[in-house]
Amino acid sequence: MTTTPWLIAHRGANRQAPENTRSAFDIALSYPIDGMETDVQMTGDGVPVLYHDPTVFKIMGTPERISDLTYRQLCEMNLGQWFSSAFAQEPLLTLDETLKTYAHRTRLMIEIKSYKPDQISGRSLELTLKVLEEIRKPQLKNYLENIFILSFDPVVLKWAYDHAPELKYVLNLSDKTDDPTGYVPIRNSNASDIGHLYGLCVSVKNLSEDLTTFAHSRQKKMMTYVCNNAGQVKRAMNMNADVIMTDHPGWLCKMIRPF
């Protein structure tokens, strides 16, 4: 590799503040990172919000799904107490607020969560449409280069590309398969399989030279997550990853680009 890979804060600096929150993002941006990754879901009343898990069990100890709760109900929950009492008043971020606050400051890798119930109900594509609408607002037109759309759902990404081909799409490859390249087999593949994608993303344990070669031969970026120790970072660097995601952006920046 001739250039240093992008260093991306996974859900912000999520070991220093609750993931996917303003505090986690602001701490991440205090380091010389290249961008931040986050997750977007849709509330029961159709608001795209930043949240990773399908339920609120982590913060409330109850099994309600994000898709079954309204935006107001979520805002009334204590979203930061589970992490530390210091973050007890941490507000829920909407995608709209996030784009307005951070798109002009850094790269944003926005993962569209597409859980099976949402795929079946059609909510995955409904959310995708709302994400595209937010990104295409006039005030963001000068910052589209900073915005990337990620998903484990290839249907979501292809649908999004068909409706907004000017944006950049990254397929997250699932670990839940014997073939870590998911729906894009290295052998017997052609460029049209991933022609609409900007890149591929895979967990560092499934990153391989074959996969990186496959991506680079088709002029796609190779991204990997989550590198939280020296061995994982070394593996990512040796495999020529273009993008490294970490839960410890401060530590990773000191390791790769001292500041």
Can you give a write-up of this model?
The longest helix has 13 residues, at 123-135. Helices cover 31% and strands 18% of the residues. Helix 6 (123-135) crosses helix 7 (154-163). It has one domain (6-256): Phosphatidylinositol (PI) phosphodiesterase (TIM Barrel, Alpha-Beta Barrel). The protein has 10 helices and 9 strands. The protein is of the alpha/beta class. The model is unreliable at 183-191 (pLDDT under 50).
What attributes characterize this protein structure?
10 helices, TIM Barrel, 259 residues, alpha/beta
How many structural domains are formed by the residues?
Answer: 1
Q: What is the 3D form?
A: globular
Q: Per CATH, what is the topology?
A: TIM Barrel
User: Strand order within the widest sheet?
Assistant: 1-2-4-5-6-7-8-9
Strand content: 15-25%
Q: What is the count of helical runs?
A: 10
- Secondary-structure element series: EHEEHHHEHHEHEEHEHEH
| Low-pLDDT residue intervals, each spanning 5 or more residues | 183-191
Helix content: 25-40%
Number of strands: 9
The chain-level mean pLDDT equals 92
Which architecture name does CATH use?
A: Alpha-Beta Barrel
Summarize the model shown.
The chain has helices at 22-28, 57-60, 71-75, 95-102, 116-121, 123-135, 154-163, 209-217, 230-238, 249-256; strands at 6-10, 35-42, 48-50, 107-112, 147-151, 168-172, 199-203, 221-225, 243-246.
